[in-house]
Amino acid sequence: MQLDDLYRRVIMDHYKNPRNRGTMDAESVTINLNNPTCGDRITLQLQVVEGTVTDAKFSGEGCSISLSSASMMTEAVKGKTFDEALELADKFSGLMKGEPVEFDDYEDIEALSGVNKFPARIKCATLAWNALRKGIDSNRE
């Protein structure tokens, strides 16, 4: 099986079986973002305790790239401090720029590496990550 096929399967698995999709009943940091270019909309909720993301959920609608990226991101940031989560977001930005990046703890994210060949889709892949940054920034203020 070729790497592209494997990556496609990982992306489709997260799209069809999203992790952490839903909403939180508890008080949370809530960020709403959309990508007017293609109509993707996401609501990200972060449960934060003393500067650490203890839980993350998302809802919304969009293409397979944006929703699978949100699924992967929410998995990856649970249990991370703000600084660790922002470091992951920086790594993801590098991945979207075509830089060689490895996600040691959460390799599924690397399946999105091919998106950088399609500039119009980069906004889809980064939507959830931009919501994460915005949520952390708003919680630090």
Overview of the molecule:
With 141 residues, the protein is α+β, with helices and mostly antiparallel strands. 46% of the residues lie in helices and 19% in strands. Strands 1-2-3 form a three-stranded antiparallel β-sheet, with helices on one face. The longest helix has 22 residues, at 119-140. The protein is globular and about 40 Å long. The model has no long low-confidence stretch (mean pLDDT 93).
Helix/strand/pairing category: alpha+beta
Low-confidence stretches: none
Q: What would the average pLDDT be, to the nearest integer?
A: 93
Shape: globular
N-C termini distance? 48 Å
- What does the oligomeric state look like here? single chain
Strand content: 15-25%
Q: What can be said about the biggest beta sheet?
A: 3 strands, antiparallel
Number of helices: 4
Helical fraction equals 40-55%
Kindly state the number of beta strands.
3
N-to-C SSE series?
Answer: HEEEHHH
How many whole angstroms does the radius of gyration measure?
14 Å
Widest beta sheet: strand line-up: 1-2-3
List the helices and strands and how they pair.
Layout: H1 3-16, E1 29-35, E2 40-49, E3 52-61, H2 64-77, H3 82-96, H4 119-140
Antiparallel strand pairs: 1-2, 2-3
Can you give me a brief rundown of this structure?
By secondary structure, the chain is of the alpha+beta class. The chain contains four helices and three strands; from the N terminus they run αβββααα.
